[in-house]
Recover the amino acids of this structure.
C-alpha cells in the first residue's frame, strides 16, 4: 500500500469553475419601471445605495440603473420630469444567471463597461447583483 500525502489547499484559492451564485450580493432595493428619474434618485439617496434593480409590474427584473447614469440623464438637455426608468432601459437591460461562470460574467461586464449586473432566476426574478471591484 502506498501512502499519498495530501497538501492542504490555501484558503484564498477559488474553485476552478466558480459561478456567479458564489460571488453575488443581496439584490438591494427594487423599484417599479414606471418610477421617474427624480423619484429613483431620491430612493437611492435615502437608501444610501449607488444602484436600483428595476422590475416590471409582475415583478420580473428588467435591469439596473445607477446613480451616475440617472444623474447624467437628469442633466441632459432632453430631460423632462416625465422620464421613467422603463424609458431608459428599453425592453430589458443586461442580466445574468446564477449558473454563469465568473469568467464569462466578468468578460461580459468588462466588454459592456458595467460595474454591477443583476442576477436573475429562470423566471426573471431578481436574486441578487454581481458587483466587480474596480
Amino acid at each position: 500500500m502506498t501512502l499519498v500525502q495530501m497538501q492542504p489547499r490555501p484558503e484564498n484559492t477559488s474553485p476552478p469553475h466558480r459561478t456567479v451564485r458564489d460571488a453575488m450580493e443581496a439584490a438591494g432595493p427594487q423599484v417599479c419601471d414606471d418610477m421617474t428619474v427624480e423619484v429613483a434618485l431620491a430612493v437611492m439617496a435615502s437608501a444610501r445605495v449607488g444602484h436600483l434593480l428595476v422590475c416590471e409590474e409582475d415583478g420580473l427584473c428588467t435591469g439596473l440603473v445607477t446613480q451616475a447614469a440617472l444623474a447624467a440623464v437628469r442633466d441632459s438637455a432632453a430631460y423632462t420630469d416625465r422620464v421613467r426608468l422603463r424609458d431608459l432601459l428599453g425592453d430589458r437591460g443586461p442580466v445574468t444567471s446564477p449558473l454563469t461562470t465568473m469568467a464569462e460574467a466578468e468578460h461580459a461586464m468588462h466588454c459592456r463597461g458595467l460595474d454591477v449586473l443583476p442576477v436573475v432566476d429562470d423566471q426573471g426574478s431578481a436574486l441578487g447583483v454581481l458587483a466587480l471591484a474596480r
In short: Confidence is low (pLDDT under 50) at residues 1-7.
